[in-house]
Amino acid sequence: MADETTGAQRLTLADMAKEMRQRASFADLALSTRELLLAWAEALEREYADMTTEYERLCRDYDMAMEALKQDERLLMKRLPATSSAIRPVVQWFAEHMECELRANDHKPGWQHDSVVSLLARTHEELTELSECLHSGDGERIVSEAADVANFAMMLADVAQLRN
Q1: Which of 109, 106, 101 minimizes the C-alpha distance to 154?
Q2: Is 144:101 a contact under the CB 8 Å cutoff?
Q3: What percent of the chain is helix, strand and coil (3-state, nearest 5)?
Q4: What does residue 63 show for φ and ψ, rounded to 5 degrees?
Q5: Are the beta carbons of 148 and 129 closer than 8 angstroms?
Q6: CATH top-level class of 87-163
Q7: Can you give 101-147 as a three-state secondary structure string?
Q8: pLDDT band per the 50, 70, 90 thresholds, residue 12
Q9: Is 56 exposed, middle or buried (0-12, 13-18, 19+ CB in 10 A)?
Q10: For position 9, what pLDDT does the model report?
């Protein structure tokens, strides 16, 4: 009976030693994985910092270029005679967007027979749409909605002058 107990104890001790080696192997693997994940996190943090720095530089460059363009535009506008019929570049640009919006709706009947009240109501609807899209930051949509508002203001002015 003593031999059986000793054999069982040896088997148990051998199993325990094997299990401890496996646990040590798993612990090493976990430690290696943790170190790898930490290294990736550090690399991602550095890359994010580099990208943020580059983005900030690009934003500064863009702002400086836009300011230079505005300055150039102001200088050009000052050189034009006060009686010049030249249209400001920004007005021309916006008028072109207004025209695009009008052409996109050429399939609809004109506004000349609409009432001022109905045109004013539609202008309010367009203002609401513009207000909602301002929060989106979608520049194209903002320009499109602003052109819609301007077109309805133009329609109101057109109808008013036609009726007077």
Answers
A1: 101
A2: yes
A3: 85, 0, 15
A4: -60, -40
A5: yes
A6: mainly alpha
A7: HHHHCCCCCCCCCCCHHHHHHHHHHHHHHHHHHHCCCCHHHHHHHHH
A8: confident
A9: exposed
A10: 57
Amino acid identity for residue 149 in this structure: V
The pLDDT assigned to 144 comes to 94
Give residue-wise pLDDT tens across range 18-31: 777 777 777 777 88
- Token pair, residue 33, equals 């994985």
Interatomic CA distance for residues 75 and 66, integer angstroms: 14
The Cα 42–Cα 51 span in angstroms is 14
**What is the pTM (predicted TM-score) of this model?**
0.49
DSSP 91: H
